[in-house]
Amino acid sequence: MTSDTGAPSTFGRVALVHDFLSQYGGAERVVLELCHIFPEAPVYTAFYDAESTFPEFRSRQVVPSSLQRVVRPGRFRAYAPLYPRAFERFDLARFDLVIASSSAFAHRVRHPNCRVYCHTPPRFLYHPESYGWPDWRNRILRAAATPLRRADRRSARAKASYVANSDLTRRRILEAYDIGCPVIHPPLSTTHLSVPVEAMPDRPAMLMVSRLLPYKRVDLAIAVANATGLPLSVVGEGPERARLQAMAGPSVTLLGRVSDAEMPGLFAAATVVLAPGAEDFGYGPVEAHWFGRPAVAVADGGALETVSDGVDGLLVPGTSTDLWVRAVKSALERPWTPEALRRSAGGYTAPAFRERILAWLSS
Q: d(Cα 264, Cα 15) in Å, to the nearest integer?
């Protein structure tokens, strides 16, 4: 017997675990695809805010931890010291396989057959500088987090196996945990992207889709718009909104959260998609290609795997505004072919992800 996606019943009873269901992000899209592969699997999480994440989770069995009564959704990062224990207290003994989708502490669950799909080892434990905090704060956090890192490493090394969402994450896992692992790129959810490729618009315009966090470098995208006067639409919410709104010039529109149904129109109106932050993987370029739009991305992180310089976008070797202004102008002058750009996203579809995930779990 198999599931409707071909997942063999030999996996037995499966549970999914995710850090927290309170955002519209790439990690949550991975969990949704895992839900499609294992339609009977419950989803365990630190806490669940149905209004702040994808509505598809409402039809799933979601099991929040005891922190559900404590965590304030808008301040979930402030509860970081409580998460490890919350995940360790989940009783998963009745399941044959546990799959943890983790960028924080979901991998702290206890189970002899726990497989971890890792988006990144916890940033605040291993790479606090990525948040843009002052150096003194990073040094204090690194010192204070030493016991947490030791426990985190012990837990990681007790897991059955790891897989990384990108080569950058694979290297981070090796550095943090001394664990070698393969790479399975996240799936491009074409359910909300299943529209024909449209011709480039006549008027140049820029688009960025991102949570509003410091390491995403939305401020750099805004600086480019301010310097060029080109329209920039930014899709996403986050704690940086007030600061970004204050620096935004008249050509910048912060759209906040946008439904999946509205996304095709936004991509169709853009001539270039910006990805200035060094991402663990980063959906922006892949979604841009699916819609037939080139990506201008920083030459770092996941973009090195998803953008072929000069073929389906441009890679910028740095984060200076001048460099980015020149790159955007160059992208606007090139004759991109929308149909060819979509073909470059073919390896990131949901069926490709399912095939690779099932092969990993069967190994």
A: 33
Residue type, 42: P
Kindly give the residue spans of alpha helices, DSSP state H, lying in 167-319.
167-177, 218-228, 241-247, 263-269, 283-290, 303-306
By three-state DSSP, how is residue 63 classified?
A: strand
The residues near 51 (Cβ < 8 Å, ≥ 6 apart) are none
How does pLDDT run across 139-194, given as a tens digit for each residue? 777 777 788 899 999 999 999 999 999 999 999 999 999 999 999 999 987 565 66
In contact, 161 and 181? CB cutoff 8 Å: yes
In this structure, whether the domain defined by 206-344 belongs to CATH 3.40.50.2000 is answered with yes
Reported CATH class of domain 9-188+349-362: alpha beta
Alpha helices in the chain (DSSP H): 26-37, 83-88, 123-126, 135-144, 146-157, 167-177, 218-228, 241-247, 263-269, 283-290, 303-306, 321-333, 338-343, 350-362
Q: What is the pLDDT of residue 5?
A: 47
Q: Would you tell me the crossing angle of helices 321-333 and 218-228 to the nearest 10 degrees?
A: 70
Q: Where in the chain is the domain with CATH 3.40.50.2000?
A: 9-188+349-362, 206-344
Look-up: residue for tokens 């939305």? 218
4 falls in which pLDDT band (50, 70, 90)?
very low
Beta strands 114-118 and 97-102: pairing type?
Answer: parallel
Q: Up-side HSE of residue 192: CA atoms within 13 Å toward CB?
A: 17
Q: What DSSP string describes 135-158?
A: HHHHHHHHHHTHHHHHHHHHHHHT
